[in-house]
Amino acid sequence: MNEQVTKKPKILVVDDSKVIRHAAKKMLANDYDVHLAEDGRVAWETLQKVKTISAVFTDLSMPNLDGMGLLNQIRGADAEHIADLPVIIMTGHEDSVSIKQEVIDAGATDFVAKPFESIDLISRAKAYAQLNRKVVELEKKMSHDKLTGLYNTNSLQMQGAKAVSFASRHKLPISTVFFEITDFQKYFLTHGKRVAQHIIKAVGKRLQEGMRDEDIAARIGVAKYALVLPMTGKQKTEAVINRVCQSINKLVFDTGKERIRINFVAGYTVPDLVEVTVFNDILEQADNALQQAVNSATEQVVCYENQAVGEAPPEVITEQDIEQAFSSILAGNFYQIPDQHLAAVFKRLSPFMQYVDNRMQAESKPASIEITRQN
Questions:
Q1: Is the distance from CB of 53 to CB of 70 less than 8 angstroms?
Q2: Which positions ≥6 away from 253 have C-beta within 8 Å?
């Protein structure tokens, strides 16, 4: 059974009365993981640390930050998982109808009167915490790629737009990186859907392993991935790309017939947010850089800013150039191949050379199908 399904939903109870806090915990403890806070300030800190709270029960009158202040902070939060939380106000006899109306207008979900009966507290927890949990799970299914668990394209655009808006507002750097597995169609056609899906999932897992909480990772094509890196300039972005590529290069996929290693190319942009603030334009910059890397015989990582206006484009190596080079190789006239064509010819020959090497290694291995990871 999935561990995520069997975990108890988390409830946050906020009250300056120790008696009320522990009474609520005792009533809810059988079915919920109850977190306690003595005022709104501690409650807000808890919400930053514990990202899976499903509902908040809070008193109104508290020191440091009262219930109304906490409610306003929750509803104004940048993080959706906090802003959308059910907030149930625990009211006393002294709370007037006008105060309750003010709280409802501010976004409170419901009320429970103090002193409360266990059935009142449990019924509201069941109604709101479990419903919120199901909504979150449904939203995750709709917003995430089924195969890798990363964000899908629509979610990347939504989350990325928010990240860019925040970066622009606070004058912080942000970068976007596109990765693509080269020759993926060859792996699919040669080894089938099962191996191809293992490759896609393994790459997705490696991306997740190296992410910070604030980073955004998505699968946006069959073998194409994206990273949005808040508070990350060019130098740090290049370090991330190198780390990711090195991690991917350690993956070995053993089908029993041959051992497969994959290769990544990357394109990235660190946009000037004074000039570009539309996230789709930033995605286009990253994609343009990626396509240059895909089509290049020598560069595996390309930065968008390198494509300066007026800069001479790299020489395009045509199929006729490649065919002529192969003819020279077969005739033994290697010296006739132009120096500027050598890298492209080597890149075209590399899959064949790897295939020969893999076939020779496979002759001494027993037949089996497994995906392995090389540390």
A1: no
A2: 195, 198, 199, 202, 259, 260, 261, 262, 371, 372
Q: Concatenate the DSSP letters of all residues of 133-180 into one string.
A: HHHHHHHHHHHB-TTT-SB-HHHHHHHHHHHHHHHHHHT--EEEEEEE
Say how far apart CA 15 and CA 37 lie, in whole Å.
Answer: 7
Tokens of 273: 């947010």
> Which structural domains are found in the chain, ordered by start?
3-143 (3.40.50.2300), 153-315+366-373 (3.30.70.270)
Q: What is the pLDDT along the chain (375 residues), one digit of tens a residue?
A: 333 444 788 999 999 999 999 999 999 999 899 999 999 999 999 999 998 898 999 999 999 999 999 999 998 887 777 888 889 999 876 666 777 788 888 888 888 888 888 888 888 888 887 666 665 555 555 667 878 888 888 889 888 999 999 999 989 999 999 999 988 888 888 888 888 888 998 998 888 887 888 899 999 988 999 999 999 999 999 999 998 888 888 888 887 778 888 888 999 999 988 888 899 999 999 999 999 888 887 788 999 975 444 444 455 567 777 788 888 888 888 778 887 777 777 777 777 776 666 666 665 554 444 445 455
Count of CB atoms situated within 10 Å of the CB of 22: 14
3-class SS at 117? coil
CA distance 345 to 322: 6
> Which residues, in sequence order, are CB contacts of 264 under 8 Å at separation 6+?
179, 180, 181, 182, 244, 245, 248, 249, 300
| Whole-Å CA distances, 39 to 19, 62, 93, 102, 108 | 14, 6, 20, 20, 17
